[in-house]
Amino acid sequence: MKYISTRGGIKPINFCEAVRMGLASDGGLIVPESIPDISADIDSWRGLSYREIALKVMSLFIDDIQTEELEQLIQASTEKFTSKKVTPCVDIDDVFVLELFHGPTLAFKDLALQFLGNVFEYILKRDGGELNILGATSGDTGSAAIQGVLNKENINIFIMHPKGRTSPLQAIQMISVLDKNVHNIAINGTFDDCQHLMKSAFNDSEFKAKHSLGAINSVNWARILAQIVYYVNSSLNQTDAKNQKVNFSVPTGNFGDIFAGFIAKKMGCPIDKLLLATNENNILAKFFNTGVYEKGNVVHTISPSMDIQVASNFERYLYYYLGEDSKTLNSAMDSFTNKGRFVCKLKGDSGIDPQFIAGSADTESTLKMIKETWDRHEYLLDPHTATSLVVAKNHKSPYKTICLATAHPAKFPSAIEDALGKDIATHPSLDALKGLETRCEDLDANINSIKEFVRKKLKP
Ligand SMILES: *Cc1c(COP(=O)(O)O)cnc(C)c1O
Fold first, then answer.
1. Domains of the chain, earliest start first
2. H-type helices in 204-325, by residue range?
3. Which residue is closest in CA terms to ligand 1's atom 2?
4. How confident is the model at residue 340 (pLDDT cuts 50, 70, 90)?
5. 280 CA distance to ligand 1 centroid (A)?
6. Is the pTM of this model over 0.70?
């Protein structure tokens, strides 16, 4: 499989080059040249384990890593999950809940970042060189990225977070990691400041090249690929006949997770609808319902990992929506950059695309869903996951819906307290963080201080 850019400006490259490139060098997003069709084989995959399915799926998209090595990468990327099934699925009457939070940081980002960390290490061992990751986080991504590259040779990671503005739990998940290749930086400023600093560092091409700077953000194709696996696995596990299907309901922020579901459906998995759930930041839900894609202001909610207006992976979907035509895509993106909006035509009553059903869940309905689910089933939802149940329950379908549980509820204790009047969400790995030694550098939101710190730490 070769990879190209949505903007049409790069020559076809292999998987490992696509991983190293991250964002395409023409400013677009990297996509596979074609989408493999698995509909003829899929019935023979039923009953395979998570890792066996992962090998089948990933082999279709990777031809520059040998099978045995890919098998080892998959093993290493799933062995820190505390569930034998990796992503177990729980039946709570009218919906299934797919638990994606059994990894080291208790959020679904572990599935993608454990794999990405191992692939990076593999590529550096094979082709030489080093990688120094610089990232910005508002909470969840930072700790998952740190765990993804822990103890990896030739990789250092620098993660900036806004000082005092992540939850205390999220901060300690990051700064209690004392390994010498991990550098946490608390910025005196906001998350936007952190992102701005990261962009400034990457825009200095001399600094970037000299220090082999790399990114781990959600546009990396390896992250999408790792996520396609659980759609294939769970859609097979939860159906038993060829003409039976499931829907997926997905708490959505940067559109990476649901885009993986879109690819799984295109590949021929038994998926009927993709339900896109947002919180009050509903630019994507508006687009699918009205055809208007228009930027608004970010609202802070109880599901902070979905507090995003412009979704970085959305360009991938648009590329397919516009018939894989880079020219049309370029003009849509230009219009969005210049006017802050663009408009697509509706298809009758089914919105923009009959494959998607989009809805948004406000704070009140999200809290109500957490409480109802606890009262009826003694099952505790985190606030992100709860948005997907709100949207699933509003959708009438002959098929059952799999709601993606993207974080463990114990990561968001104050939302649980708001919903139930008491905080009953706990997890032993979070309890174990209390009182741990921490290490973190406090810096002002000044690009020269950041560069100086990186230089100092990378000096042999
Ligand atoms: C990142 C995240 C999301 C959003 O996923 P996208 O791929 O950005 O759409 C949802 N829930 C949680 C808990 C997350 O950490």
1. 89-106+221-427 (3.40.50.1100)
2. 205-210, 221-237, 256-267, 283-290, 314-321
3. 305
4. confident
5. 15
6. yes
